[in-house]
Every structure is written in structure tokens, then in C-alpha cells.
Amino acid sequence: MAFAPSALNIQQGRTVWLMEVARSVERARPDREHWILKLKGLNDRNAVEGLRGELLETPDNEVLREDDDSFFVYELIGLRVVTTDGEVLGKVVEVLQPGANDVYVVEGERGELLVPATAEVIERIDVSGGEISITPLAGMLDESK
């Protein structure tokens, strides 16, 4: 089986779920942009081919993050969004994933704001501190409110 790479450090003996069935990892190795896995109970190559594209799951607490700045999308919900000037814009209520970059939907005193999750806008995401710091693009904040 080959799976797209992720922050998951797949190790022998770890339990993963495939189509809601718990399976133990018997062998695992990264291969370029994928992982090659041997899961317990899956011994027939033809049967495994039928699983291509299926979701492989593991509990969040089993995911080894690549660095201190890694986060799950759901962890952004509820974070306070502030400008680099210190203005509190509100809280993230939704994360849209339309394509090129995520968009954070922020609700606050200015109403609903759409914040593009790009390096140009996002200065810092501090999940443990509960805050996202941004530099708004020109015209992003409606100054009439």
C-alpha cells in the first residue's frame, strides 16, 4: 500500500484504522512522496490494490508533529485573530479550503472577515496561546465599521 506523506510517523506496531477496521502496522517505510505499508491481515496484493485511495486514520495523539508550528485545521476554530497593530478582529469560526490556500472565517465586531491563510497575511499561529496574528492586506478591513 502507498499513502501520501503526512506528519504521521508510521511505525511498526502502531494501530491505524482503514475503512473503520483497526489494523496493526507490521512494516512501514517512506518511499519518495509516499509510505509503503504492510498491515496485519492484508496479505493479498490484489485485495490491497482495491484499497487504493482509502483513508488511513489514527488518533490525533498518535500523530507526531513535524515541528512546534504544526497544527490540525480544527485546532484553529476559536482562536482569537489580532492584527500586528494589536486590534482584535474576532475569532475563527470556520476554515474554508477552496484550493490554492485556506481561508479563515473570522467573526467579530467588524462582522465576518475572510482572512487568506498566506505567508503575506499570517504572521504567527500560536495554537497553545489561542491566537493568530495577521498583517491585513490593503482594503481587507472595511474601515467604515
In the CATH scheme, the class of the largest domain would be: Mainly Beta
Low-confidence stretches: 1-8
Tell me, what's the shape? elongated
Average pLDDT metric: 85
Determine the N-to-C terminus distance. Answer: 54 Å
Main beta sheet strand tally, sense and closure:
6 strands, mixed
What is the CATH T-level topology of the largest domain? SH3 type barrels
CATH architecture of the largest domain: Roll
Provide the succession of SSEs.
EEEEHEEEEEEE
Rg result: 20 Å
Tally of strands: 11
How many domains? The number is 2
Structural class: mainly beta
Description:
- The protein has 145 residues and is mostly beta strands.
- It folds into two domains: 2-62, no CATH class; 73-134, Roll (SH3 type barrels), CATH 2.30.30.
- Helix content is 3%, strand content 41%.
- It is built from one helix and eleven strands; from the N terminus they run ββββαβββββββ.
- The protein has one helix at residues 45-49; strands at 2-3, 15-18, 21-31, 34-39, 56-57, 80-83, 88-96, 103-108, 111-116, 122-126, 131-134.
- It is elongated and about 65 Å long.
